[in-house]
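call fold target=Electron transfer flavoprotein subunit alpha/FixB family protein
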Amino acid sequence: MNELWVFNEPNQPVVDELLAKGRILADQAGMKLCRVSVDLPDFQNDYFTRALLTLVQKRRPQIMLFGATAIGKTLAPTLAAKLGTGLTADCTGLEIDPETQTLKMIRPAYSGNILATVICEKRRPQMATVRSGIFGPEPVQFEDIIIRPDCSSVRKRMQKTQKLDDAEREKLHSTEFIIAGGRGIGVPENFQCLEELAEVLGGAVGASKAVVDMGWRRWEQQVGLSGKTVAPVVYIACGISGAVQHLEGIRRADILVAINNDPEAPIFDYADYGLVGDVLEIVPEMIRQLHERHFPGK
Ligand SMILES: Cc1cc2nc3c(=O)[nH]c(=O)nc-3n(C[C@H](O)[C@H](O)[C@H](O)COP(=O)(O)OP(=O)(O)OC[C@H]3O[C@@H](n4cnc5c(N)ncnc54)[C@H](O)[C@@H]3O)c2cc1C
């Protein structure tokens, strides 16, 4: 029997809403409705993606629905990319085509001027994220699938980093200086110089989604629409292009400093101060000058 999955996130009302809508769609299409949870202590995109990927490849669900939450917006696109299927984000309506049994995913397009109906005919699963408050929650019946990743080492690593993550999260919210790195940093080891600058300034290190997705930094450090919203006095964006989703997280920063080797990078349109050049030359020079000012002669 074909399956319709709803990804379960604890304490997110959208899950019950999706289950209620999922029940209607599943009945129309003769599918089994399943709520799928990943039993790990904290969300980390790569572990959750791996856990879901294995089960999706085994059970081959027809449809997968996620809440358009910070986690859903991170996990669903990663999983869709790994599966080579499509994803319709921020749907406001879901219907089943009675003839083809295909999911019709309805969402606003062109700045909300039209409602587009998107279908993903040939790929499996058909995936969508849906905002909270679109469908009413109803108690319905479903099968509960709990994925318990067979990886005690993953659990241990997650538990070990948990304390660190909490400290980082707290620090990003409370610090006056955030030094954030993006893909322009080149390789994960180069984050070392951002750590050094953060140490000199007494600040914290943040990251773009691109580097979090590549596993260079932890999700707790991601700044932006699907990460943290921060409000430091100074935000130094290093090798970050300035995508709208990243800028969304730093609107409340008092001063934005951008370091980028591309003078046309969009981040310069928003920066208070822009430094055009190689981040790996500029940041060490900043550290050197700060040391010279604060610890002359050392
Ligand atoms: C639903 C959704 C949610 C998203 N949420 C987020 C989010 O929360 N946070 C987020 O960050 N993104 C988010 N994104 C992704 C976002 O659209 C961008 O893809 C991402 O921000 C790009 O990261 P980046 O700037 O590090 O990489 P890129 O866009 O690849 O930019 C790298 C930059 O580095 C510069 N560069 C290269 N080498 C050097 C060098 N040696 N010195 C200096 N500069 C250099 C380049 O000129 C370029 O401008 C989201 C996207 C979607 C669709």
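return ok
The two ends are 71 Å apart (CA to CA). Residues 73, 182-184, 208-211, 222-227, 239-241, 243, 245-246, 249, 259-262, 265, 278-280 surround flavin-adenine dinucleotide (CB under 6 Å).
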